[in-house]
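Field reference: sequence -> structure
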Amino acid sequence: MALARPIPDAVVDLVARRLEVVAQPQRIKLVDALDRDGEMTVHALADAAGVTLYNASQHLAVLRRAGIVRRRQEGRMACYALADPTVIALSRASRGGARRPARPPRPAAGPGRRSLGLGGLGSAQRFSWTGRDGLDLRIQPLTEPR
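Structure field:
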């Protein structure tokens, strides 16, 4: 589904908020641990991320309010799992880009569809966008050879 042009302010605000929420080193570690190990207790997540139990709980609450993780209560234990798989694709793409030296940006091309393969994604996906502004983002299965 393509977004309207220009993108409505409400959508821009939502995307910015999501990126802001995930853009914390401890939260990236928590999301990565959930991606790697699946559903985990707060204690296990705190250990995996190398943070205190209190700190993990606070960050998980922020991620939960943003809809990135979901919480399930099991007796006295709270278990967390990823609720938004697009965050994983974004995280993996960012990690892949962080391993390579930064390149200067290319000049903007005219309108049209461009795509970028996401190296390191086990399910072979492609990250694509439409339009010169690059704000209509989609993640889709890779159906053509690179």
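Note: The chain is about 45% helix and 20% strand.
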